[in-house]
Design a protein that fits this description.
This protein starts with 5 loop residues before the first strand and ends with a helix. Helix 5 packs parallel to helix 6, helix 7 (196-208) runs parallel beside helix 9 (258-267) and helix 7 (196-208) packs across helix 11 (312-328). The protein is globular, with a radius of gyration of 20 Å. The protein has helices at residues 15-26, 41-49, 63-73, 87-92, 94-114, 155-174, 196-208, 229-241, 258-267, 298-304, 312-328, and strands spanning 6-10, 30-35, 53-57, 77-80, 122-128, 177-183, 186-187, 215-217, 223-224, 227-228, 247-250, 256-257, 278-280. A seven-stranded parallel beta sheet has the order 3-2-1-4-5-6-11, with helices on both faces. Strands 7-10 form a two-stranded parallel ribbon. A two-stranded parallel sheet has the order 8-13. Helices cover 42% and strands 16% of the residues. It has 330 residues and is α/β, with parallel strands linked by helices. The longest helix is centred in the first third of the chain and has 21 residues, at 94-114. The chain contains eleven helices and 13 strands. It binds NADP nicotinamide-adenine-dinucleotide phosphate (NAP) and ligand F7E. The site of NADP nicotinamide-adenine-dinucleotide phosphate has 25 residues, from helix 1 and strand 5.
Length: 330
């Protein structure tokens, strides 16, 4: 138990926000979460599933609301998980992506400074492997580290790079405890249906139950270093318990193609040849693709003692099993 600490989480309604709020609750934290928009059905559903979270209305693009949220929570730890996080969407809405994913971090850091709590708050910034871009020239054989060269390939990646550097700049300029986690893809039962892994596992479940005939995807060759979200939020928390604020890669150290994900997912429902069940549509392809991502988590393993527990087959299995149950209904 960590005692009576208080945490404020932006992006609490997202995949990681849900996992992290549960983790912090089990550690005895008082958890505050940012919710945007007016009262709606989604808020009520969230409150039903996470009754222990105090929701505060705010938006990363609205500095006044952020200051009020920081004051209301009096947080010891602030986890900035809120973002426009879908890479494909960021190509279609690049300015909104910059406002939320890049400038939102600045707004939040300034809110903490204005609140007078800069010395008390430990801040986590959700940085991403999308900052690396996966090009031949900057790709180390053993995987990207905290010191690898950045070359973002999307408005999302570019916005996250600004966010990463402004977070580091506040650490250097004002001595704030700001940690950045450069996280490679992490997935699970709570992953949004717009991301490829969950789109596949949901589609596989629907095909199995005769509710859908095929899945429509974009490019199938890209490779990702896919881990389980539950393991990764544990790493976020560990970064804020460390003596010094620092930058850490969280990854599995393995990379797999979408085709490999499809093979494992379809094999869960007894289908060995998935090709008749998958079609491709250019609408799901991106103007610039990140071909291969592979991370090297050695620093987090050595310094924080972080270790992922779920492997790639285990991840696919738990996602398909979950979606088979969800699709079947109560
Ligand atoms: P997610 O499921 O897409 O959740 C994004 C969250 O951001 C949602 O709660 C969303 O709220 C919130 N949000 C969007 N616009 C906002 C705004 N204007 N003001 C306040 N909140 C806003 O993302 P995730 O997978 O949990 O990822 C968490 C963070 O880690 C993100 O910053 C993401 O970019 C980063 N990241 C993710 C991965 C990954 O593989 N999952 C890897 C590296 C980094 P609504 O529900 O209201 O839309
Ligand atoms: O795409 C390809 C797509 O959208 C993975 C975010 O959490 O992780 C995530 O970004 C790959 C890409 O994740 C479809 O082109 C093919 O090559 O699931 P994704 P992402 O782009 O890797 C990083 C680390 C983040 O930080 C992000 O926030 O799959 N792909 N067909 C498809 N992708 C989608 N979404 N949908 C398809 O139909």
């Amino acid at each position: 138990m960590s005692g009576e600490k208080t945490a404020l989480i932006t992006g609490i309604t997202g995949q990681d926000g849900q996992h992290l709020s549960e983790l912090l609750d089990t550690k005895g934290y008082e958890v505050f979460g940012l919710i945007r928009g007016q009262r709606n059905a989604r808020r009520e559903a969230f409150e039903a599933e996470f009754p222990f979270v105090h929701l505060v209305e705010a938006d990363l693009t609205d500095p006044t609301s952020l200051l009020a949220a920081v004051r209301a929570s009096e947080a010891d730890e602030v986890y900035n998980l809120g973002a426009i996080s879908h890479v494909g969407y960021s190509f279609r809405n690049p300015q909104l992506t910059a406002d939320v994913t890049a400038k939102g971090v600045l707004n939040l850091l300034e809110a903490i400074r204005s609140s007078g709590r800069a010395d008390q708050v430990r801040f986590y910034q959700a940085s991403t492997s999308e900052m690396f871009g996966g090009l031949d020239y900057n790709r180390p054989g053993n995987g990207y580290t905290e010191d690898s060269l950045f070359h973002p390939r999307s408005p999302y990646g570019v916005a996250k790079l600004y966010a990463h550097w402004i977070a580091r700049n506040y650490r250097e300029s004002y001595g704030m405890f700001v940690a950045t986690g450069i996280l490679f893809n992490h997935e699970g039962e709570r992953r949004g249906l717009e991301f490829v892994t969950r789109k596949i596992t949901d589609g596989v479940a629907r095909i199995h139950h005769g509710m859908q005939s095929h899945i429509v995807l974009g490019d199938l060759w890209p490779k990702r270093d896919w881990g389980y979200a539950g393991d990764y939020v544990r790493g976020m928390w560990q970064m804020l318990q460390h003596d010094e604020p620092d930058d850490f890669v969280l990854a599995t150290g393995e990379t797999h193609s979408i085709e490999e994900f499809l093979t494992l997912a379809f094999s869960q429902i007894g289908i060995e040849d998935w090709t008749p069940y998958v079609r491709q549509d250019p609408q799901f392809m991106r103007p610039a693709e990140v071909d291969i991502l592979l991370g090297d988590p050695t620093k987090a393993e050595k310094v924080l003692g972080w270790k992922r527990e779920v492997d790639f087959p285990g991840l696919v299995q738990r996602m398909v099993e979950h979606d088979l149950k969800v699709v079947a209904g109560p």
